[in-house]
Amino acid sequence: MIDFIGDIHGHADKLEALLLKLGYKIINGSYKHPDRKVLFVGDYIDRGPKIKETLEIVRAMVDSDNAIALMGNHEYNALCFHFQETEGGHLRKHLIKNIIQHYETLKQFQNQQKEYEAYLDWFKTLPLYYEGETFRAVHACWDYNNINYLKNTLVNDRLTDELIYQSVKLGTTLNEAIDQTLKGKEMKMPEGLFFMDKDGTQRTEIRIKWWGNPTLMTYKSISVEPLDNLPEQPIEASA
Q1: Bridge partners (DSSP) listed for residue 4
Q2: Among 197, 190, 201, which Cα is nearest to 229's?
Q3: Of 3, 183, 192, 169, nearest to 85 (Cα)?
Q4: Strand partners, 69
Q5: Residue 86 reports pLDDT greater than 90
Q6: Are residues 73 and 98 in the same domain?
Q7: Are residues 214 and 128 in the same domain?
Q8: What is the pLDDT of residues 200-210, one digit of tens each?
Q9: What is the pLDDT of residues 90-134, one digit of tens each?
């Protein structure tokens, strides 16, 4: 009996309302259900007004064995944004678009650096996927080749500091496995087309329904997001 909850993005009030509606109650400082537990599939931070409170709720449920929490791409990005390169700078460059993505998180932890870094350490304890006897769960994409590679590479299904440093090397198997597992698979839009994402960044690649067959789908039908400017035309072989 599992309740799957994903992409809270700092909306703690909505999370609490959902938990109460599902029958969870606060017992000894953690939301608990008499018969079920939650599997959080990642993305607890960025965007929303109560990021710290969201983390407190999720972590308390995990610590009391009332929930399982997976890593999302926003937690991974936060780690890379924080990790320093040996030659200067950070693994996730402090470009304007990256700063804007993390702005709400950083702002809400202002003057609480040690507490924020403690949560960063907690992010490293989050597994990238879950596989039980009756179901599998992942933040974005369960690709068997990627998951099998991660099973043989991660430490207890988790990222170590050394693996985080290795993971940002573009084009490597580790980089692509983490990128697709936490973000999903992407495809270039037809030439000249683009869209603006939730953070206001212009994108020319769409996240696709990786479980579908591209040879039987169009650009519009394969896109996860319903974009009006995508054509109902067969997908080009080079896409």
Answers
A1: 39
A2: 190
A3: 169
A4: 40
A5: no
A6: yes
A7: no
A8: 889 999 999 99
A9: 999 999 999 999 999 999 999 999 999 999 999 999 999 999 999
Give pLDDT tens digits for 173-214.
Answer: 999 999 999 999 999 999 999 999 887 889 999 999 999 999
pTM of the model: 0.92
- What stretches of 168-218 show up as alpha helix (H) in DSSP? 173-183
The answer to whether residues 27 and 63 touch, using CB atoms and an 8 Å cutoff, is: no
For residue 62 the two structure tokens come to 């995990």
- 205-207 and 186-188: which strand pairing? antiparallel
Which residues in 213-239 are b (16+ Cβ under 10 Å) and which e?
A: ebeeeebeebbeeeeeebeeeebeeee
174 and 205 part of one domain = no
- One domain, residues 17 and 44: yes
Phi first, then psi: give them for residue 155, nearest 5 degrees.
Answer: -105, 110
User: How far is Cα 71 from Cα 52, in angstroms, rounded to an integer?
Assistant: 16
219 and 161, same structural domain?
no
